[in-house]
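TL;DR need C-alpha cells for one chain.
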Amino acid sequence: MPQSQRDVRNRVASVKNIETITSAMAMVAAARLRRAEQRIAALRPYASGIRLMTRRAADAAGSVPRVPLLQERAEVGTVGLLLVAGDRGLAGAFNSNIVRAGVAAGREHEGVGRRVIYLASGRRVASSLTFRGLPLMDSFTGFTDRPGYADARRIAQRLTAAFLDGEVDQVEVLYNGYRSAISQTVQREILLPLQRATVTEVDPSEEEASDVHPGVRGRPEYEPDAVAVMNRLVQDYVEISIYRALLESTASEHGARMTAMRNASDNAAELIQDLTLQMNRARQAAITQEIMEVVAGAEGIA
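>> reply
TL;DR here they are.
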C-alpha cells in the first residue's frame, strides 16, 4: 500500500532524529577513544618495568616454584574463564564476539573432560552467560567505560584467591585487543598459573630503556629476600595484566561504538535521501493528478 506524503514526511523526521543521536554518540565515542589510547600508552612503561623487575627477581629467587602463583597443577580439572567486555551495547559485535569466544573456549575445555566456570567483567557478558545457563562464579560491572586500577585489583584478588584456594586450576582471560578504531581482535591468554617464560621474558629494548646507566650492570639485593619480593611482584604482574586487558577492552569498545554509530549515521543519511526522493515523487504525482483533473474539467466545460 503506497504511503501518503504525511507518512513519508514523518518517517524522514524520525530518521533525522536517529541520525542526530547516532552522530552525537559517534563523536562522544571518538573523544573517549582518544583518552583510552592515551591511558594505554601511559601504562606501557610501567608494565614493562614490572616485567623486568619480575624477571630479575625470578633469577635471584632461583626456585620459582616456591612462589604459589607460579605453581602448575599436576592435572587441570577446573578452568576459570574471565570474559572482559562492556556494560552497554550499541557497539556492533563487540560484546557478542567475546561471548562466542568464551563459549567456544569453554566447550574446548569440556571436550577434554575439564569443568568450566565463568567470570564476567561487563554487564552485557554477565547477562548473556546467565541467559545461556552457564555457571557464573562472579561478575564485575559498572566501570567498563573508564576502568580504574582499583577495579583491576579487585578482579585480580578474586582470581588469585580462587586459584590459591583450589577453586580453579587454571585461569584464562578473553578480551578484545585494540588494534585501531576499526580493528579489534579477540585475545585469549592464560593468566594463572603464570608460566615462567611469560613472567620472565622481556624485550631487550625494554631492558636497555630501563637502565639508568647503560652498560653498567649490578647485582641487586633484596630485602627480606628475593622470594618474598617475587611473591609481591607476581601479584602486581597479575593486576597489571588484568588492568591492561580492561584498558584494551575499553579502547576497543569505544572504537567499535564509534564505527557502529558512524555506519548508522551513514545509513540514516542514505535512508533520508531515499525517503525524500519518494516524498518528492509522491508530491509530483499528486500535482500531476491535480493538473490532469483541472484540464479534464476545463475540457468538460468547453
